[in-house]
Amino acid sequence: ILDRASINRMRVSVCVSLKQRNLEGYVGFANLPNQVYRKSVKRGFEFTLMVVGESGLGKSTLINSLFLTDLYSKDYPGPSQRIKKTVQVEQSKVLIKEGGVQLTLTIVDTPGFGDAVDNSNCWQPVINYIDSKCEDFLNAESRVNRRSMPDNRVHCCLYFIAPSGHGLKPLDIEFMKRLHDKVNVIPLIAKADTLTPEECQLFKKQIMKEIQEHKIKIYEFPDTEDDDDNKLIRKIKEKMPLAVVGSNVVIEVNGKKVRGRQYPWGVAEVENGEHCDFTVLRNMLIRTHMQDLKDVTNNVHYENYRSKKLAAVTCNGVDTSKTKGQLTKSPLAQMEEERREHVMKMKKMEAEMEQVFEMKVKEKKQKLKDSEAELERRHEQMKRNLEAQYKELEEKRRVFEEEKANWEAQQRILEQQKLDASKTMEKNKKKGKIF
Amino acid sequence: NSHNSSGGSTLLGYIGIDTIIEQMRKKTMKTGFDFNIMVVGHSGLGKSTLVNTLFKSHVSRKSAGWARDEKIPKTVEIKAVSHVIEEGGVKMKLTVVDTPGFGDQINNDNCWEPISKYINEQYEKFLKEEVNITRKKRIPDTRVHCCIYFISPTGHFLRQLDTEFMKRLSHSVNIIPVIAKADTMTLEERQEFKQRVRKELEVSGIEFYPQKEFDEDMEDKSDNDKIREAMPFAVVGSDKEYQVNGKRVLGRKTAWGIVEVENPNHCEFAQLRDFLIRSHLQDLKEVTHNIHYETYRAKRLNENGGLRDEPALPLTLYRLLF
Question: What is the pTM of this model?
């Protein structure tokens, strides 16, 4: 796992091995920084800022004050105006132009954080969001065509601490512990006009003590070679965590127009260094350390994510007893092997499928044959039945004919007898035997 | 008087019935009285400071020796601290019940249960004493007369925990919601927040003290209506004194001004104090005794047809008494 200290050491060692040579004439590469500057100005900058904290801590107001825009206005009320049942992660993009420089600012808000009665795992949606942005960047980096690579990774996470005056809450500690190695965490004391200067000092000390106790790594300002800059940085470090107040309302104080909050007992000025640390935050976040935040995100947090993710991929699908040596395998060779495996798997699947297909065809054929035979059999049987019936009928007809002949014969005999009888009667009549 | 149907009878001379008020006063001064107040709210809302400011002395748990930066307990604890304070010859035994750990955990489910249990335990203690055959002359009253619930000044809405707690406990104790650390909000923000909170309380059916149903007559009703309109009070507490316009006042000193705690233009602490102590202290005790305690008693006696450990009286006599 890389961290800032190891990177600094790497930088230093490289510089020592090169000897500085003196030039005999003016070459002109001193102009390089200007060229870089001009190119970046043309390209424009991106910055993603995440704000996390319970509702009602002034996150939306602070964002509006920092960037002097109405990201959340009356027409588009921010997430604070809606009650949420679960933690959501919402992002809003705004394009800010100043002095020819273009900044695409993405603000990621987390409404619902810490607002429920049971807040276990309310940090999970936040972690999922950060990881998904890193994954998008990883995929974009690994693609073949890398022309446009938008950087949506979260560069900085402002964590708002409620101004209780006592110390950190269990939720604060849990959240920062889980996120300090995924993103730059900058803790802020919200609504700092609640605290008197002494209370603020005590509170800050208490928070820093607890942060050290729990080994939370908040964003650290890098040391520079310039002594004056270092003095400033040390002063800022003493003020951590920064106690901020936000306001977009302009009030007139002693003839001057200032941003502030009007109370019956005075006006709390947002940009007054003695009232709160808002100017320190703004200068640090935008004017001096924006690039450093992006660098640390890229070099430290993103690299941690990347190595963890890729190590997990190489361990997948390989026998666990062999994993000891596999971690050092080059990803390209691993990819080749995977491809070969994949192709083999496909071939095997194809063969299997063919087998199955053949089997099915055979089955079907057999079935058809069987039913054909069955049909034939039945056909034969029916024919035989019919013949038998036909024979029977013939037999019956013969019998019937016989009977008919008999009966006709009998009828004829009867007729003959009748005739005979009538003949004899007539004879008898004639003979006078019947009277 | 039986032969007078309209109003009281006209006296033929000065009898002195009105001195009974003086007699009561003298008695009260001698015996003194108990008052138990509970403060509920998650840590950092200024509960202990407010109690100190209300009674103008260091009576909170924090002042009784607990350190300022003690760790947040893992479960809700109930810590009661008692002091006897005296003013104008009247002695008051004030007990402040604090509830550290409420609403501070990551998972705050059922964090109201220890509090509910404590309140019911006090009613149970009183009931047992009352039912005893040989009763003490003055039953020690540890029942919670008033529960001040501190609402976090987010400026947006009530939290889920707030409504859950108040819903469950408004029927067993007098709840007075206050908006804590009101110096976080400007006057307009305070008004908007108050409106929203009051609407939410109405919608959730939460009856905070003074409850509408217990107004005894028209005078009470109009007084209490005014108070109900102004609740929840937005308060600021402080036990430090500063010099403002030649006077010493309690306040908080910021870089842009001094917040005066007792200045009605700055916050509503003075209103809360007058309401709580100067006008409704006795009423709080009465409502607790006549209504909340009686509800508890009726429920308990109906539950098992009697108390579990019945006194050794003949059954008929016992039934007669209760």
Answer: 0.70
Q: Which residues of A touch B260 (CB under 8 A)?
A: 265
Q: Find the CATH number of the domain harbouring A183.
A: 3.40.50.300
Q: Is residue B250 part of a domain?
A: no
Residue A428 lies in a domain: no
State which residues form the domain around B275: 29-238+267-303
Digit-coded pLDDT (tens) for A118-160: 888 888 888 999 999 988 888 887 777 776 677 888 999 999 9
Residues A204 and A198: their CA atoms lie apart, in Å, by 10
| A158 Cβ contact partners less than 8 Å away, ≥ 6 residues apart | A49, A50, A51, A52, A53, A59, A62, A186, A188
Q: What is the largest CA-CA distance in chain B?
A: 74
In A, which residues are within 8 Å of B264 by CB distance? none
Answer whether B258 sits within 8 Å of A116, measured CB to CB: no
Cβ of A170 under 8 Å from any chain B Cβ? yes
User: Based on the structure, what is the number of domains in chain B?
Assistant: 1
- Can you give the CATH number for the domain in which B164 is found? 3.40.50.300
Partner residue opposite B109 with nearest CB, options A117, A164, A169? A117
Residue A35 has pLDDT above 50, yes or no: yes
Considering the domain boundaries, does residue A18 fall inside one?
A: no
Rounded Cα distance between B298 and B306, Å, is 10
Range of the structural domain that residue A173 is part of: 31-313
Reported ipTM: 0.72
**pLDDT per position as a tens digit, B117-156:** 999 999 988 888 887 777 777 788 889 999 999 999 888 8
If one counts every other C-beta atom within 10 angstroms of the C-beta of residue B278, the result is 8
> How many distinct structural domains can be found in chain A?
1
The Cα B185–Cα B183 span in angstroms is 5
Q: For residue range B50-93, what is the model confidence (pLDDT) as tens digits?
A: 888 887 766 666 654 444 445 667 778 888 888 888 777 777 88
A197 touches chain B (CB under 8 A): yes
Residue A194 maps to a domain? yes
Please name the member of A81, A116, A162 whose beta carbon is closest to the beta carbon of B160.
A116
pLDDT-derived band at A323 (thresholds 50, 70, 90) equals: very low
Give the separation between CA A310 and CA A315, rounded to whole angstroms. Answer: 9
Partner-chain contact B160 A119, CB within 8 Å: no
For an interface test with A, give the residue of B256, B258, B260, B267 to mutate (most A CBs within 10 A).
B256
Residue A415 lies in a domain: no
Other CB atoms within 10 Å distance of the CB of residue B149:
23
For residue A287, the model assigns a pLDDT of 77
Q: Is residue B79 part of a domain?
A: yes
What residues of chain B have any CB closer than 8 angstroms to a CB in chain A?
43-45, 68-69, 72, 104-109, 152-157, 159-161, 164, 181, 183-184, 186-187, 252-260, 263, 265-266
